[in-house]
Structures are given as C-alpha cells and as structure tokens.
Design goal:
Shape: elongated
Number of strands: 9
Order of helices and strands: HHHHHHHHHEHHHHHEHEEHEEEHEE
Number of domains: 2
Largest sheet: 7 strands, mixed
Strand order of the largest sheet: 1-7-6-5-4-3-2
Helix content: 40-55%
Strand content: 5-15%
C-alpha cells in the first residue's frame, strides 16, 4: 500500500496490485474487470465475488482507522445486500477464510501441490468460523461500526458505549465523558466550572496541567508579541464626540476611516442602550435573537467590513460545513444526508480561493442569563468545531506551530475569546482575552476596553490570514490522527444540541 503500511504476511493474502490503487478505485466493477483480466477461465464471476468479500475483510481487520478503512467498510455493507445472478446473498456473517484462500490465486489452486483433503478443509472452516465470531464480538465491544443500527432515542449510557476509531493521546487513554470531547483529543483549560475541564483537572496532575498551560502560553507568545506592540489602540474622544453633533466627513475613506466610524457607531449604540427603559442590557424577558441583533452581531461582525474581501463573519443560524463533512463521511449511499451544527456566527477566510472556517461564535441566551447548562452545551459545540477546523487546516500544512482556530463564547454580558493550538497531537484550548459589556452609564468608560479588545482580535485575524497565505493549498497531508466518526444526534427537551 502506498499511503499506509501492511506487513508482508497480510500482503501475501490479498491481490496487492489491486489494493495498492487509490481507495477511490476499490469498487466492485473495478474489481470484476481486474479479476476477469487476471484469471481467464469459466466460473470467474462467483470466485471473483467471494474473493473480493474476503479481501475486504482482511483490509478491515488490519488497516488503521482512516479513509481507506471507511471505504472498505462502505463496500462491505453494499455487498451484504447485493445478490449475484445465482440468487445467493453473500452475507459477510457466513464468510470463511478457506473460501478466500481457495479462490485468491486460481492458478495455484489448479496445481496438484495446492490441493488438500476435504477433511482438512472442514476442520479449518470450523476453526475460522469460531475465531471470526470471537473477533467480531470483540470488535463490537470496542468500537461503533456503521453495521450496527442506532436508535436516536437511546439514553446517554448507551451513547457512551459507542467508542470512536480515533486513537486517544496517552494522558486521555482512560478518560471517558458524556460529551466525548476526550475522543477528539481536546484539552480544555478554560472555565473550571465546565464539567469536562473539572474532570480533566482531577485526572491530570498539577505538573501536567501546568506543563500544558506553559506550552499553550508559549504558542500564544509568538503570536501576540510579533506585531501587537506596534499598535497603540488609541481612541480620540474628540473625534468620537463629533458623531453626536456633526455629520460624517465628505472625505470619508473606507479603509482608513472605517474603524473610527465603527467606534462612533458602537458608542452611539451603547449610549442608547443606557438611556432606554427596555434595553436588552436591562430587560430579563429579552430574547437571545434580540440581544444578538441589537448588540452582539454589531460587535463581532461589522468590525471586519473594511477587510471583508479576505475575512468576514456570517451571523444568524449558520451551518458548519466541516462538521457536516465529518458526519457524512461514512454514510451509505441510501442514507439521508446529515446537517452540520448551526452556530450563531462563523468567521471565514478566503485563502487562495478556498473558503476556510477559522472561528465560531455562540451566544447563550440574553444579557441577563444565569444558566450554566446552556453555556456548557454551547461550549461543547464550539470545542468540537474548533478541533475539526484545526484538523482540516493541518491537512494542508506540515507545520503546526502557527495553526490556530478561534471561538467566542458570549455568556450574558461576558465575552470570552478562546484559541486552540495543536500541541503534540493534543488540541489545547484556553482563553486569551475577555471583556464584560457595561450595562449602565456608570461604567461608560469601560467601552474603551471593549473597543481595544475587539481591535486586537481583528488585528490577530489579519495576522493569521497573512500567515495562512504563506502556505499554498496545493496538496493534502494525511494526518497521523484521523477525525473521529460522528455519533448520532441527541435531542434535548429544551433546546436542540448535537452531542456528537
């Protein structure tokens, strides 16, 4: 095999010249053409089918989790329901290795030296069936395969039994949670009240936690110290004051004057919120959609209007395309297409013509919410989205030192800015900045801090965009750790969340 390694003992059991092709060419029709061309004798169709089934099983049992193994699983499921011209269903549950050994090399079987007594073959059949049954039972207990039907109404205990194919890092080997974040190799250092972080801190020693924090801080230093000191983030209050008494200048230049325009608009919006009786910052009955529409979307998306040819933010209920790709990767031909998670906002970058998802936003309720359960559910969704984004970025770059993914969690008036780095096959995430939105005129001076954090965030995105441009997206590097197989969605009684 070209992109994966099988030992010579396994190679001797299969037609190496066929399976060394790219996995896209492993279909049944390609196999029939290959087999009929190789063995020009009568009865080739039946032999071809049984040999194909047996060799698929050899690949499934010996390949590491990845695209090739997923392809072999899909082909095996398809063959289970396909009938040959003789009307026999070649169920994989009735297969045996003797059939495969008898048919894999027809020329060898025709030679006298390869013929064996029937009694010997029957004994081997019995042994193979017993060993195959044991292996299949053991495999079911260790991983969730697409052969097994899953009822979405099953409880969380049943969901926790579905172990993914992704190998965990060593420190998470014996770690299991209902969120399944450990199967994505995610190390969350943010929010000690978050159940996953709390369990992680009890599992790991103080030295391990500190080492992970130091490595994350080291990755952040190379970013923050590079260009941040060249920008003062000075706000001219006299220019902001003109927004309330005079009209904008006729000599407005979009690229050079837009940030001032954005600051003026933010101060006006916040001032009106302080003056209104039914402000979203004071009204407990205000909906999340109203909070997002009046304040949050303006803060997080409009600041990028002057660079939106390269970086932009879509707000609303935006579907995560990389999450959708993960869920549909292993679906069968007759299975309905699944949807990705919906986020309150997604940040995109136009990297060499490719639309890349690098940031994700979630707003938890209104400005006065106090419900940690909703916060935890949104945080789980953000962490998985960040990991998948970082994994797909890594597919186009060997260097992981500068790769990042971002998220913003808005909980009440708190805005938490998170960044994730790939460190030693672990996806380490922590908070790098934050601010609290002022909710009264007494805290009017705090708006300047909000502006500074948002301008730093924008500058960081621009720097990261230029960093991505340095690596042309021409080839795909296969990661040593494959993406986890998405588990079924679970319905929450109060709100829909995908626990996958």
């Amino acid at each position: 095999m070209k992109r994966y390694i099988l030992c010579q003992d396994i190679f001797s059991k299969i037609h190496r010249e066929f399976w060394e092709q790219p996995y896209m060419k492993w279909g049944g029709e390609e196999w029939d053409r290959f087999y009929s061309k190789k063995y020009l004798e009568e009865g080739t169709v039946q032999r071809s089918h049984s040999t194909y089934v047996a060799e698929l099983e050899v690949l499934i049992n010996n390949l590491k989790p990845g695209r090739e193994r997923e392809k072999a699983l899909a082909l095996r499921r398809k063959l289970e329901t396909k009938r040959t011209t003789g009307g026999r269903t070649y169920s994989l549950r009735e297969r045996n290795t003797v059939d495969y050994n008898e048919n894999r090399m027809s020329k060898r079987m025709n030679s006298p030296s390869e013929k064996r007594p029937v009694s010997v073959l029957l004994k081997e059949v019995k042994k193979v069936k017993q060993s195959t049954k044991y292996k299949r039972r053991q495999q079911r207990s260790n991983e969730w395969t697409d052969e097994e039907a899953f009822d979405a109404s099953e409880d969380e205990d049943q969901v926790s039994l579905n172990i993914f194919n992704t190998p965990k890092v060593e420190i998470l080997a014996n770690f299991e949670t209902k969120s399944h974040l450990e199967r994505y190799n995610i190390i969350c250092l943010f929010d000690i009240e978050f159940s996953y972080t709390k369990k992680l801190f009890t599992l790991l020693s103080t030295e391990q936690i500190q080492r992970l924090k130091d490595e994350w801080i080291e990755a952040e230093k190379s970013i923050l110290d590079e260009k941040m000191d060249k920008n003062t983030f000075f706000i001219d209050l006299d220019e902001l004051y003109t927004a309330f008494i005079t009209q904008p200048s006729n000599k407005y230049q979009h690229r050079s004057n837009y940030e001032l325009f954005w600051c003026q608009d933010l101060y006006k919006r916040m001032t009106l919120q302080f003056l209104r009786n039914r402000s979203v910052l004071k009204d407990k009955t205000a909906s999340e959609f109203r909070y997002r529409d009046e304040l949050v979307n303006h803060l997080l998306s409009t600041i990028f209007y002057d660079v939106e040819e390269a970086i932009w933010v879509d707000t609303g209920e935006i579907e995560n395309r990389t999450r959708k790709r993960q869920r549909n990767f292993s679906k069968t031909d007759n299975e309905r297409e699944q949807l990705g998670d919906k986020h309150d906002g997604i940040m995109y970058m136009n990297v060499h013509g490719s639309k890349v998802e690098v940031g994700f936003f979630e707003v938890v309720g209104n400005a006065l919410i106090n419900d940690n359960s909703f916060k935890n559910e949104d945080l789980i969704k953000l962490l998985k989205a960040m990991m998948i984004s970082l994994r797909y970025q890594h597919a186009y770059s060997k260097d992981t030192s500068n790769l990042q993914s971002f998220s913003i969690l808005v909980y009440g008036c708190e805005f938490h800015f998170l960044s994730m780095h790939l460190i030693n096959n672990m996806y380490v995430v922590n908070e790098y900045d934050a601010f609290i939105l002022p909710n009264s005129s007494v805290c009017f001076s705090e708006i300047g801090n909000v502006v500074e954090v948002m301008k730093k965030f924008k500058l960081r995105m621009i720097m990261y965009y230029h960093n991505l441009l340095k690596s042309p997206r021409k080839t795909t590097w296969l990661s040593s750790i494959d993406l986890p197989t998405a588990s079924p969605k679970r319905q929450s009684p109060s709100k829909e969340f995908a626990f996958v």
